[in-house]
Specification:
- The protein is of the alpha+beta class.
- It folds into two domains: 2-97; 108-196, Beta Barrel (OB fold (Dihydrolipoamide Acetyltransferase, E2P)), CATH 2.40.50.
- The protein has four helices and seven strands.
- Helix 1 (2-21) packs antiparallel against helix 2 and helix 2 (28-61) runs antiparallel to helix 3 (66-106).
- The longest helix is centred in the middle third of the chain and has 41 residues, at 66-106.
- It is elongated and about 75 Å long.
- The model has no long low-confidence stretch (mean pLDDT 81).
């Protein structure tokens, strides 16, 4: 029972890290890797007692009933698939919680300013996912700040294509490198920002 509690705590720490830092381009690689490792370890600890029961069932019944042995092996494979699915769900949940945290801070005290898109970056971890960021430059109290905005967050808020739109029958590029934009950001945490048209 203690091991399951430890496993749950490890999973929650991974989810908290993902929730707090997923939007920040500076920490994205680190947080993605750490959260995946914590999810893997935490879920492994949680599922370990069940894994042992399956192994014992296979060993004790292997001589008596080959059909039960196959069922136990099938159950083991199903458990591995469920384990992978849980990790994917936890990753997605962390990203959505980060979006909600961002919305919370953008509903508090914010500052609007003019900025520009300086780059468009795609960060990628082999077989573990990717994230696309607008790199936005703006000034905060005379100091130049460069932050990343997750492309999906802009899409979720604006409900339209991030790159193209159709206006009066013409295809228009929306957000291109070098274009001026109006940025609204949290006064407390400037890394929480959004583009307002």
């Amino acid at each position: 029972m203690k091991s399951r509690i430890i496993g749950i705590i490890i999973v929650l720490v991974g989810l908290a890290l993902k929730t707090i830092f997923n939007h920040n381009i500076e920490y994205w690689f680190t947080i993605k890797n750490i959260s995946l490792i914590l999810f893997f370890i935490g879920l492994g600890i949680i599922q370990y007692p069940l894994w042992g029961k399956i192994d014992n069932g296979i060993k004790s019944k292997s001589n008596k009933n080959k059909r039960k042995k196959k069922i136990n092996k099938g159950f083991k494979i199903a458990l591995i698939l469920f384990y992978v699915l849980l990790i994917v769900v936890l990753e997605k949940t962390g990203k959505e919680l980060n979006f909600e945290l961002r919305k919370h801070y953008l509903s508090k005290k914010t500052i609007k300013t003019v900025g520009k898109i300086t780059d468009y970056k795609k960060l990628h971890i082999f077989r573990s996912g990717e994230e696309e960021f607008y790199i936005i430059e703006f000034k905060n109290n005379g100091k130049k700040i460069t932050e990343g905005l997750i492309n999906d967050y802009d899409l979720w808020e604006n409900q339209k294509s991030e790159i193209y739109s159709l206006k009066n029958g013409e295809l228009k590029l929306n957000k291109v490198i070098g274009s001026k934009i109006t940025v609204e950001y949290s006064e407390k945490y400037p890394s929480f920002l959004k583009i307002i048209e």
